[in-house]
Specification:
The structure holds 2 protein chains of 2 kinds. Chain A is an alpha/beta fold. Chain A has helices at 2-5, 35-42, 50-60, 72-86, 105-112, 114-128, 142-153, 175-184, 211-228, 262-267, 299-304, 323-337, 343-360, 365-377, 385-403, 405-412, and strands at 90-95, 130-138, 160-166, 206-210, 239-246, 252-257, 276-279, 285-288, 313-316. Among the domains of chain A are: 31-228, 3-Layer(aba) Sandwich (Rossmann fold); 323-412, NADH-ubiquinone oxidoreductase 51kDa subunit, iron-sulphur binding domain (de novo design (two linked rop proteins), Up-down Bundle). Chain B is of the alpha+beta class. In chain B, strands 1-4 form a two-stranded antiparallel ribbon. In chain B, strands 2-3 form a two-stranded antiparallel sheet. In chain B, a hairpin with a 5-residue loop joins strand 2 and strand 3 (35-36). Classes of the chains: A alpha/beta, B alpha+beta. Chain A binds chain B through residues 189-191, 193, 341-344, 347-348, 373, 376, 380-382, and chain B through 7, 9-11, 13-15, 30-34, 36.
C-alpha cells in the first residue's frame, strides 16, 4: 500500500499528458500491467467476508460506474442474500464491454490495470459465495485479449474464471442482455420481470458489475473505506474515471477525485470551460460549460446542475457546434441500436429521430410532436434504452428553447446553421 | 392489505390492442397501438375487467399482479 500513499512524483512517462489531478489509484503513474508488478504495487488481496465487504462498500458510498449508478454495497448484499436463500452458488460477471461509443475509460483501465479489475471480481465472488467468474468483453477486442492474458498468468483461484466475447452491439452489454447471452447466446435485454441478482446466469444468483466498479471494489476490499475516502467529497468519496473527447486538444481518459470542478477536469484534456458538451454518454445531457465550470464532478453535483454522470464521458462541441444536429444524429444511432423487441422503442425512437431531423430542417410542427411523444415513450421498454434517448432529446429541446433560442430560430426560419462537422463519436450500432 | 396492479411484458406485447377494448377507462393505446397502462394500484371496480383485459391478450403479455 506504500506506493499508493507516497506523494505524487513527477510523471516518468513522457508520452502522457500531465494530469494535475492525478491520484495514482486506478491508473497508476507507473503502470502495473503484469501480475508480479501488480502484487508488488498493491500487496495481496485477502479474502473478505460478505458482511465486511458490504459495510465497507456502503461506507465508501460506491455507486456503480456502468451508467445506472446503483449502490454497489446493496447489490452485493442482495446477491449474498439470494445465495443464502437458494443455496445455489452465485456467478459474478465483470461487464468489460463499455458499449457507449463516447466512453473508453474501461478499455484504458483494463489496458493499464487488468489485474485490479479481476481482483474486484475475485473479492466480490469470495464475499457473495460465487464459484464462477465471467469476464465479459467484446469479441476480438483489445480488452478481451488483455483479460485472457491476465487470467492465464494469475495463479489458480477458488473460482473458475472465464473470459467471454460478446457481439459488438450497443445494447448487448445491458446487464440483462449480458446474462441472457451467457444463458442462450441471444444478447438482447430480457426485461425486469426476473431479477438477475436472484436468477441470472444458469438460474443462479448473479452479480453484474462494471469494470471500473470492480476495480474500485478491489481497492476498498484491500485498504478499507477510510483510505478510500481520503480524497473525494464527503457524500461521494474516492475517484472516478472520465473519458474526455470531442473538440479538445488532448482527448483521453483521466482519473479525478470526486468533486473536482468541471473546469479542472476539462483542463486535464487541455480544454477550457466554454461552449457545449454532451455529458454522460449517448443517454446523457447537453451542458453549457461556461455556466458549469465550478460544478463538481460527482453524481449528485452533476445531477443538481442538470447533467448526469451516466457512463462518465464528456464530449465537447467545437465553437459553433450544433446541439440539434448532433442530437438528431445520435437519435438515429439509438433507434438503430435498439434490440427491436418493445414497441415504444422500436417505433418511438425512429419517430423522435425523424422529428429531430425535421426540426433541424426547420419543421415547426416537429417541436410539438417531440413534446407529445417523449413522455409517451419514456419508461415503457424492457430496458432503459428508450429512456436514455428520451432524456437526451428532452435535454436538447431544453437547451435549444431556453438557452439557444436564437439558434433554434435560425433553423426554423430556414436560415439553417453553419456548424462544423459533428464530433460525437458513434460506433457500429 | 394487498393491491392489484397491471403489469406488461413489453417484449411479448404485439400491439393487438384487445386490452384497451376491455378496459378503455384505464388502458389507452399509443399512436403505434401499444398499451399505456395506469400506474399504481387498480381501483376495486376495475379489477374484474382488468383480469378480462389480461385474459384477452393473445400473447399473454398482460398480467394482473397482486402486490403486498
Amino acid at each position: 500500500m506504500t506506493a499508493l500513499t507516497e506523494p505524487r512524483r513527477a510523471t516518468d512517462d513522457t508520452n502522457r499528458a500531465p494530469n494535475p489531478l492525478a491520484t495514482d489509484r486506478l491508473l497508476p503513474i507507473r503502470p502495473a500491467y503484469g501480475w508480479i508488478d501488480h502484487l508488488s504495487r498493491l500487496g495481496p488481496l485477502r479474502p473478505i467476508t460478505t458482511k465486511k465487504l458490504g459495510r465497507s462498500l456502503n461506507d465508501a458510498g460506491l455507486l456503480g460506474r456502468g451508467g445506472a449508478g446503483f449502490p454497489t454495497g446493496r447489490k452485493v448484499l442482495a446477491v449474498a442474500a439470494a445465495v443464502a436463500g437458494t443455496r445455489l452458488p452465485a456467478v459474478v460477471v465483470a461487464n468489460c464491454c463499455e458499449g457507449d461509443p463516447t466512453s473508453y475509460k474501461d478499455q484504458v483501465l483494463i489496458s493499464r490495470s487488468p489485474h485490479l479489475v479481476i481482483d474486484g471480481a475475485v473479492a466480490a465472488a469470495a464475499a457473495v459465495g460465487a464459484d464462477r467468474i465471467v469476464l465479459a468483453a467484446h469479441e476480438n477486442s483489445a480488452a478481451h485479449r488483455i483479460l485472457a492474458a491476465a487470467v492465464a498468468e494469475r495463479p489458480g483461484a477458488a473460482q473458475v474464471i472465464d473470459v467471454v466475447g460478446l457481439p459488438h452491439r450497443y445494447i448487448a452489454s445491458e446487464a440483462t442482455a449480458l446474462v441472457r447471452f451467457l444463458n442462450s447466446g441471444d444478447a438482447r435485454p430480457a426485461g425486469k420481470l426476473l431479477p438477475i441478482w436472484e436468477r441470472g446466469v444458469d438460474g443462479r444468483p448473479t452479480l453484474v458489475d462494471n469494470a471500473e466498479t470492480l476495480a474500485q471494489l478491489a481497492l476498498i476490499a484491500r485498504f478499507g473505506p477510510d483510505w478510500f475516502a481520503a480524497i473525494g467529497t464527503a457524500a461521494e468519496p474516492g475517484t472516478t474515471l472520465v473519458s474526455i473527447g470531442g473538440a479538445v486538444p488532448r482527448p483521453g481518459v483521466v482519473e479525478v477525485p470526486h468533486g473536482a470542478p468541471l473546469r479542472d477536469v476539462l483542463a486535464c484534456a487541455g480544454a477550457a470551460p466554454t461552449g457545449w458538451a454532451l455529458v454522460g454518454g449517448l443517454a446523457g445531457r447537453w451542458v453549457d460549460l461556461s455556466g458549469t465550470a465550478v460544478v463538481g464532478y460527482s453524481t449528485a453535483q452533476l445531477a443538481a446542475a442538470g447533467a448526469t454522470r451516466g457512463v462518465g464521458s464528456m464530449i465537447v462541441l467545437p465553437a459553433g457546434g450544433c446541439v440539434l444536429a448532433e442530437t438528431a444524429r445520435i437519435l438515429h444511432y439509438q433507434a438503430n441500436a435498439g434490440a427491436r423487441q418493445c414497441g415504444p422503442c422500436m417505433f418511438g425512437l425512429p419517430a423522435i429521430a425523424a422529428d429531430m431531423t425535421a426540426l433541424r430542417a426547420g419543421n415547426r410542427g416537429a417541436l410539438d410532436r417531440l413534446r407529445r411523444r417523449l413522455p409517451v415513450i419514456n419508461g415503457r421498454g424492457a430496458c432503459s434504452h428508450p429512456d436514455g434517448a428520451v432524456a437526451l432529446a428532452a435535454s436538447a429541446l431544453s437547451a435549444l428553447t431556453t438557452q439557444q433560442p436564437g439558434h433554434l430560430r435560425q433553423h426554423l426560419t430556414g436560415g439553417g446553421c453553419h456548424a462544423p462537422a459533428p464530433v460525437v463519436p458513434l460506433g457500429a450500432a | 392489505m394487498s393491491e392489484r396492479v397491471l403489469a406488461l411484458d413489453p417484449i411479448a406485447c404485439r400491439a393487438h390492442g384487445l386490452c384497451a377494448e376491455e378496459l378503455p377507462e384505464a388502458i389507452v393505446l399509443d399512436e403505434w397501438g401499444y398499451p399505456i397502462l395506469p400506474t399504481g394500484p387498480l381501483p376495486a371496480q376495475w379489477v374484474r375487467r382488468a383480469k378480462s383485459a389480461a385474459a384477452a391478450c393473445p400473447v399473454l403479455a398482460l398480467r394482473v399482479q397482486t402486490r403486498r
